[in-house]
Amino acid sequence: MSVDSAFVHKVWTDNELSKMITAGKVPFPMLSDGGGKVGEMYGVYDEDAGVDVRGRFLIDPDGTVVGFEVLTPPVGRNVLETLRQIQAFQHVRATKSAEVCPSGWKPGKTVLKPGPDLVSNVWKNWKVKEAFE
Amino acid sequence: MEVGCSRPAHDSVDSAAKPLVEKMEPQKETKPMVRIGKKAPDFAVSAYKDGGFTEVKLFDYLGKWVVLCFYPGDFTFV
After folding, report:
1. CA-closest candidate to residue A53, choices A69, A29, A30, A32
2. What's B66's DSSP letter?
3. Interface ipTM
4. Chain A partners of B33 at a C-beta cutoff of 8 Å?
5. Would you say A3 and A52 are in contact if contact means Cβ atoms under 8 Å apart?
6. Which residues contact A31 (CB under 8 A, 6 or more apart)?
7. pLDDT of chain B along its 78 residues, tens only?
8. CA–CA dist A62, B71 (Å, integer)
9. Cβ of A58 and B67 within 8 Å?
10. Which residue of B has its CA nearest to A52?
């Protein structure tokens, strides 16, 4: 989503984006936020520049915002980190929060089971180095 | 940015402080605002999708995981 019109989105999508991906077709809708009204609601509209800055919001199936990341324009986001977060939130949701995902968690790695026995015992169940693996 | 780690006190719900703020700066109608762990503000906007123009409403995607991405503009380099 940007403040560009859907017409500008068409030109950019057809002439550049579609050539950058193997599928040849952008698999998601390109949304137009004319005037930055939506960006304002999401706290990412820069009134001075008249644009939406780089904001990425994760919204779960109930419509709840579970995470976001906002960067100023010159640096891009990390798609793999976004996917990692989605996988982690999906795991938590699938276990009805019986299992939670510590720092750097990826599918297959150590999860934690919140409860009385875990209090002050995280260090026995999870090592800091796992956050960097 | 209205929301984020940088200004945690911005949206203080301290009831004592509220009337003061309203006096200094008459508040506009309360706008929906994003909050972590709360319902995402819904919207309906025009869009380019699958080669055609359409309208996209956020809550049409309820039941699915959604990544909503804002960026400064088409043809920007990053």
Report:
1. A69
2. E
3. 0.93
4. 41, 43
5. yes
6. A1, A2, A9, A38, B45, B46, B47, B56
7. 444 444 444 555 555 555 555 555 655 667 789 999 999 999 999 999 999 999 999 999 999 999 999 999 999 999
8. 24
9. yes
10. B72
